[in-house]
Design a protein that fits this description.
Blueprint lengths: L5 E5 L5 E6 L15 H4 L11 H17 L3 E6 L5 E12 L3 E13 L5 E4 L5 E4 L5 E3 L2 E3 L14 E7 L2 H5 L5
Parallel strand pairs: 6-10, 7-10
Antiparallel strand pairs: 1-2, 1-5, 3-4, 4-5, 8-9
């Protein structure tokens, strides 16, 4: 699918100036409820992000694309408790000092284990907001690569959202 599932237009102050969401035919029950542009008009895009570290990551990404004045694509994950979504964001500078922020769904598959993650505190397990890997000891691992949970015994898990070193290294201009 090379059609964005959601597009934001963001001004120089990171305020949302436009929004186009995916069509209803794509939406499933495990996706967040739809919202309209009027719900988010002039909201600061960074207010949609809970973690300070992730906000800084996005601020750096947006600034680098604004300065370089070149489109930039970045792969990321946006999982639900049952589905691993492999997505791509594309940032494109547009006229009038707007930034177009498109999100595309490239692939999805059932994720294991079936755990709902939620924002915890700084003592929680670390989870990368971009690739969704978890920090296990000193390594960042995908839940499918290394089962760090007991099968079917954990259904929720508090995490501290952050950005792993590998995702930081992929920023443009590095």
């Amino acid at each position: 699918m090379d059609k964005p599932v959601i597009t934001y237009w963001i001004d120089l102050y990171n305020r949302i100036k436009g929004l186009k969401e995916l069509d209803e035919g794509f939406r499933r029950s495990d996706m967040p409820p739809p919202f309209s542009f009027t719900d988010w008009e002039n909201e600061n895009f960074m207010s949609l992000i809970e973690s300070d570290e992730v906000k800084i990551f996005f601020e750096v990404l947006l600034q680098r694309v604004r300065i370089m004045q070149k489109p930039y694509a970045y792969n990321f994950r946006c999982d639900s408790p049952r589905i691993a979504r492999f997505m791509r964001m594309r940032l494109t500078p547009e006229s009038g000092n707007l930034m177009r922020f498109d999100c595309f769904l490239d692939n999805e598959e059932h994720s294991l284990p079936n755990i709902r993650f939620y924002q915890g505190d700084t003592d929680s397990m670390k989870r990368c907001s971009i690739c969704n890997r978890l920090k296990s000891g000193h390594q960042w691992v995908d839940m499918k690569d290394e089962n760090i949970f007991y099968k079917d015994t954990i259904t929720t898990c508090p995490v501290d959202y952050t950005v792993c070193p590998d995702c930081i290294q992929k920023l443009p201009g590095r």
